[in-house]
Amino acid sequence: MKENIYKGILTTKKEKTYLLAEGGAKYLEGENIWSGYLKHFSGRKVCARRLTQCDYETNKEIIIMWPDKPAQEEPFVELYFNERLAKYRTSFLGHLAINVDGEIFNFSHLLNENEIMKHEDYFFRPALGEFAPHPVTRTYNVDNPLKPYYDKFGRLFMRTIHILKITGLDVKKLSEIFYEQLKTIRSTPPDPKRPEEYSDFKILTNSCSTIIREGFKKYGFEKITGMFPRDIFVNISYYFLMQANDKRIRAAWRALPQLMVDEAAPSVMPPLMNPLNRWKKRCLEKYEQAA
Length: 291
Fold this sequence. Notes:
By secondary structure, the chain is of the alpha+beta class. Helices cover about 25% and strands about 25% of the residues. It has helices at about 35-40, 120-125, 155-160, 170-185, 210-220, 230-245, 275-285; strands spanning about 5-15, 15-20, 25, 45-55, 60-65, 75-80, 95-100, 105, 115, 160-165, 250-255, 290.
């Protein structure tokens, strides 16, 4: 079923908020628009659609909103290194995800975060309903199964994200590799003691970062190494920016600063664990582009 996507300028007038379309039509008037969107997108042209998840306060479908930008036409891969979340001990080393031609593969120790996401879902989900932190603990909390709080709203509102963009790869081949990995995760029997977690997740050998590293190895890039998210991101960036010999492959590196909202503290850059990668990072600084 085709989704209804609304486009217009996010406008607030006489205490009413809506999307003002080019022809003067007003979309989503009277809907609950998340405060983070009002803070960062007011006066800008945006896209919006309804999600199947509901806002716990209104019991209405949540509205997701994102900047209206042209779609990428050339097949691409983007590697996302997310800085660490200050309030979570398990986030100490940061997080890695990968976008293969518009499908973002996210791997995690939490089963419900092993998923394929659209660009707007990954970056711009609102902190409403199940995506929000718990209103009291301000963290992930599923004590009430009828109203779980997963604290997994738009990643760009939660962290600064560093991006390596690569073109010239066989996106179909790479996508198939990560689809197979996701299939493996979903077919793995859960641990009865921790049913919400991926039972085969291992911080050193089978994590968000090593799964992506192994995907590149299966593709054919055997020189890519590393164990932790930032180290692997630096290694993959160093490889594609400085070592890849295939002239059809092009790469660019940039950072997207966190969009600050009340629901998230500033993210923190984790350390590089391998001293050699500190040298590689200095070598790469000249390649960093403006966001």
